[in-house]
Input
Amino acid sequence: MIQKASNIHISIIYNISNQCFGYNYITACDIELYIKNDIVIISVLNNIITGFCIILKSNIPVIKTLCINTDFQKQGIGKLLLDKAIANCASFTTIHYYAWKERIPEYFINTLNKKGFKLLETQPEYWKYDSIKRGYSCIKCGFPCLCTLDIYELKID
Output
């Protein structure tokens, strides 16, 4: 089941984020602000939060983060969250999706392509200065984070 997150879910979302991206990439305070100002949805399976998605509200909404607990990956949960994220942006003509190039699985890139997303832009070392400023260590490359951002775009008819 996919549902909107609330403040009672902050600690679990925080733990999943730490597992997927590295300690404090997204803080509990960040999550609270996203819940208040943007859209945060969660996937729940047997009363367990298995993943989350953060959608930034703007002129072009951004699916900023889509993360699945490693114990529940490759079960279609990411696709369900993506579908719900797209549905939440149905009133817009364009949606952006931010992907960590070094971590997005090939099968999920295929899912994005099937949904109509196209690679729009690549930004090398996108998170470097953010990781230095905020002090987080990437689980893929350490500190500072040198991962590349791929921005995908979906045009909605």
Summary: The CA atoms of residues 6 and 121 lie 32 Å apart. Residues 2-155 form a domain with the Aminopeptidase fold (CATH 3.40.630.30). The beta strands are 2-4, 39-45, 48-56, 62-68, 94-100, 118-123, 149-155. The helical segments are 10-21, 28-37, 77-88, 106-115, 128-134.
